[in-house]
Description:
This protein is about 0% helix and about 50% strand. It is mainly β. Strands 2, 4, 5, 6, 9, 10 and 11 form a seven-stranded mixed sheet that branches.
Amino acid sequence: QVQLVQSGGGLVQAGGSLSVSCTASGGTFSWAWFRQAPGIERQFVAAISRSGTTTNYADSVKGRFTISRDNAKNTVYLQMNSLKPEDTAVYYCAAVRHGSIGVGPGAYDYWGQGTQVTVSS
């Protein structure tokens, strides 16, 4: 069974930066990050293909967030810059072994435990 373990996140003032990472117990995957704020359904943030050559971002984070991966470490990263209070949410990594990257939660088979990111105004 594949396990995804997240780290990072925390509390930062608006305009600041945070990063989150997610490591898989094994295998090569396409990855994505989603986020979920209270009372709101899980939203797509960013995704990266197995090769790392293709990325996709939600319009709300484009130009501020960067997704990257290190295949040797089975790890995906999300660097978040110019953070806004509306970025506050629990961030989840997601992975799929086969298929292309998607923007819906149903496209992914494995999920991390979630990491809180809080941006104060």
